[in-house]
Amino acid sequence: MEFATADLIDDFDAELASCETQFRQYGARTAFAGPIATVRCHRDNALVKKLLNTPSDGRVLVVDGGGSLASALMGDLIAAAAVTQGWTGVVINGAVRDVATLRTLDLGIKALGANPRKSAKAGTGEVNVPVTFGGTDFHPGAWLYSDEDGIVVASRPLL
């Protein structure tokens, strides 16, 4: 699927939310899109790992880590599992690690920054609940489109 988020805004502005958070790009796939799945967690990536190790069929995982950069919510092993399971991308309102390896994976990865520190593994958090950051609501099942210009969200597939 080829698209540009700027073109989507031009064509579907009234239907789109544009995320204001300025994420860094980490994955080899710079443009990605798909239906949203969500995780809300704070410095604990057990739910992220569990979800990204399940078959996806082209979904995008949106992780609300509360903007914490204190520990990474995804590293190379979890990201590699996401590729194997067919995830299109991951957007993390928090940190990642193993950045050099993430850049080689055919996965869209956006995060606020990097930190080599591991997160907790207790499994605290929530899965498939609406999350909000960057002035945008991310609802499970809505569609996310991401490229180098940013992230937009629509309630339905646009392409």
TrEMBL record:
SUPFAM superfamilies: RraA-like. Transmembrane segments: none annotated. Its EC number is 4.1.1.112, 4.1.3.17. Keywords: Lyase, Magnesium, Metal-binding, Methyltransferase, Transferase. Substrate binds at residues 75-78, 97. The keyword ATP-binding does not apply. GO terms for molecular function: 4-hydroxy-4-methyl-2-oxoglutarate aldolase activity; metal ion binding; methyltransferase activity; oxaloacetate decarboxylase activity; ribonuclease inhibitor activity. The keyword Hydrolase does not apply. It comes from the Bacteria. One of its GO terms (biological process) is methylation. It catalyses: 4-hydroxy-4-methyl-2-oxoglutarate = 2 pyruvate; oxaloacetate + H(+) = pyruvate + CO2. Coiled coil: none annotated. Its cofactor is Mg(2+); a divalent metal cation. Pfam families: RraA-like. InterPro entries: RraA (IPR010203), RraA/RraA-like (IPR005493), RraA/RraA-like_sf (IPR036704). Mg(2+) binds at residue 98. It is an enzyme of class 4 (lyase). Belongs to the class II aldolase/RraA-like family. Homotrimer. Catalyzes the aldol cleavage of 4-hydroxy-4-methyl-2-oxoglutarate (HMG) into 2 molecules of pyruvate. Also contains a secondary oxaloacetate (OAA) decarboxylase activity due to the common pyruvate enolate transition state formed following C-C bond cleavage in the retro-aldol and decarboxylation reactions. This is 4-hydroxy-4-methyl-2-oxoglutarate aldolase. It comes from Actinomadura craniellae.
